[in-house]
Amino acid sequence: MLRATAPTRLDFGGGWTDVPPYPQDRGGFVCNLAIERRAVVTLSERAVPHGAEPLPLVRASLAHAALDQLHGTIHSDFPVGAGLGGSSAAGVALVAATAAWRGLSLEPAELAETSRQIEVERLGIAGGRQDHYAAAFGGALGLEFGDTVTVHPIALTADTIHALEVRCLVYYTGESRISGETIRAVLDGYTARTPAVVFALDRMAALARLMAVALTHGDLDSLGALVGEHWVHQRSLHPGITTPRIEALVSAAAAAGALGAKPLGASGGGCVAIVAPADRVEAVHLAAVELAERLPFTVATTGVQVEAPAVD
Length: 312
Description:
It is a single chain. With about 300 residues, the protein is α+β, with helices and mostly antiparallel strands. It has helices at about 20-25, 55-65, 85-100, 110-120, 130-135, 160-165, 180-190, 195-215, 220-235, 245-255, 280-290, and strands spanning about 1-15, 30-45, 70-75, 140-145, 150-155, 170, 260-265, 270-275, 295, 305. The chain contains eleven helices and ten strands. A hairpin with a 3-residue loop joins β4 (about 140-145) and β5 (about 150-155). The longest helix has 22 residues, at about 195-215. It starts with a strand and ends in a 5-residue tail after the last strand.
């Protein structure tokens, strides 16, 4: 048996600007942070249990690696549909596991691109790239998207890591994720060069660049303010991106003194990240926990990990 794990992520800013054709046209940028909420994949030679149908992602990944005879499973320590990039984390873990099974060692960027290729070509999910890179590399990243992807790892001091784990609060709304219709509407809006959509995406990419600088300097006050502005532009992309519960949670956090808050991923539900001032963490938490479930995390300083094969 072989086991692989990959972290999920908090996307502070720039999401949507990694989705084609925006990156090729205008240059996207994402700032994200890998967290120790991992997707766990196991591969084995055991026969598939009777009546059990492998998950589509497992089936597609095994087929891509020509390992259809294997049995694969996925487990996670995060809610489904949380907006943490969980499916991409599972995809990267599967690619790493199948490569290791075949005796191959792939670089993180190759793991990320292969995982996305499987999503696009075999599963028909035409999303962005940032989640795959967070899972493959780990840590804090500034990701530049154009015709190619340039990875800028952000070195975090021990003090900054501790501050992120204390002052960045994540809450799960319990709602389902955004609809495909909303995603298509945003992409169609950009393709039609709707001024409001183009402006919002441009500003979100610019804010993500500033977030990377703030993280480099351990400036969480600036990070929080940037996150707050990012949500203004993100929610303007389409009415379906926000929900009444998200609005209530963001408003309650702001009233308690939060510096900024935004839903994670494409939104429409899932998790909301809130950045609190150092002296208002408890007050912000007490306001937010009335509306959603706290999802504690620690920073994942490493990306995907594969354990050596072991006798089952």
